[in-house]
């Protein structure tokens, strides 16, 4: 782990590690989530397993939070090709993961309502709350648009030469597969980890000069700590 006083090395390390840890937390949260694990009719499931819901929602919340440094790191690497596109996609991705993080609080309300009321009634009240226009347009739609932004950011990163073309497809297939389509939490999580993790590993393997964009014209002087300006005589 680079020193906190090393701006290049530490930021590169933080972004790379977060891109690996975030999908691992996502997999753990999805596996613990009793509704995702059971599938089918999930009425009352959150009320029956409140401890699992608490752990799952917390893990999923932090999986989205930790994507923020990773996304910022991806934006940082888009310098010469597709810069405007990368900024727009990155901004959309950041807004999306923040909203998905906030939506994880809903699991706690589902769990509490399904315990305090008959399960079907508790689930109905929770779904009515999430059907409120503020929840729909303020959280849910921006969240899914953020996944689109993450996909586009991955394409922009590949276009800039800092990631494989298949990575954004794996990320979006993994997340959507877990949340929307019945491909299974394990398969979806592994796809997400593969796509995000390969980008994170590339960041960790970069030199500080490559991270700073100095590989061609401004190499870091030998013996000078990364991020510090070398003095010349």
Structural commentary:
With 233 residues, the protein is an all-alpha fold. It has one domain. The chain is built from twelve helices and no strands. It has helices at residues 7-32, 34-38, 45-48, 50-65, 67-77, 83-103, 105-116, 119-130, 133-159, 166-179, 185-205, 208-212. α4 (50-65) runs antiparallel to α6. The model is unreliable at 216-224 and 226-233 (pLDDT under 50). The chain crosses the membrane at residues 12-32, 53-78, 84-105, 141-160, 166-195. This is DUF4386 family protein.
Helix and strand arrangement:
Elements (H helix, E strand, L loop, with lengths): L6 H26 L1 H5 L6 H4 L1 H16 L1 H11 L5 H21 L1 H12 L2 H12 L2 H27 L6 H14 L5 H21 L2 H5 L21
Helix pairs in contact: 1-4, 1-5, 1-11, 4-6, 4-7, 5-6, 5-9, 6-9, 7-8, 9-10, 10-11
Protein name: DUF4386 family protein
Keywords: Membrane, Transmembrane, Transmembrane helix
Salient structural properties:
mainly alpha; 233 residues
Helix content range: over 70%
Low-confidence blocks of residues? 216-224, 226-233
Compressed to H and E, one letter per element, the order equals HHHHHHHHHHHH
User: Could you say how many structural domains there are in total?
Assistant: 1
Question: What's this, in brief?
Answer:
The chain has about 230 residues and is mainly alpha-helical. The chain is about 75% helix and about 0% strand.
């Amino acid at each position: 782990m680079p020193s906190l006083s090393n701006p290049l090395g530490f930021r590169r390390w933080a972004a790379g590690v977060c891109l690996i840890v975030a999908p691992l937390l996502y997999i753990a949260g999805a596996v613990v989530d009793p509704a995702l694990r059971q599938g089918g009719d999930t009425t009352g499931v959150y009320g029956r397993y409140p401890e699992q819901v608490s752990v799952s929602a917390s893990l999923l919340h932090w999986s989205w939070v930790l994507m923020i440094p990773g996304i910022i790191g991806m934006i940082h690497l888009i310098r010469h090709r597709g810069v405007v596109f990368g900024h727009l996609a990155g901004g959309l991705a950041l807004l999306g993961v923040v909203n998905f993080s906030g939506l994880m609080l809903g699991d706690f309300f589902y769990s509490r309502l399904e315990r305090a009321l008959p399960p079907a009634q508790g689930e109905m009240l929770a779904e009515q709350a999430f059907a409120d226009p503020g929840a729909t347009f303020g959280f849910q739609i921006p969240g899914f648009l953020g996944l689109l932004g993450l996909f586009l950011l991955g394409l922009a990163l590949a276009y800039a030469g800092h990631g494989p073309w298949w990575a954004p497809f794996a990320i979006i297939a993994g997340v959507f597969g877990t949340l929307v389509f019945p491909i299974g939490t394990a398969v979806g999580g592994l796809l997400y980890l593969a796509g995000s993790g390969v980008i994170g590993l590339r960041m960790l393997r970069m030199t500080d000069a490559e991270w700073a964009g100095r590989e061609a014209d401004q190499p870091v002087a030998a013996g000078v700590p990364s991020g510090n300006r070398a003095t010349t005589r």
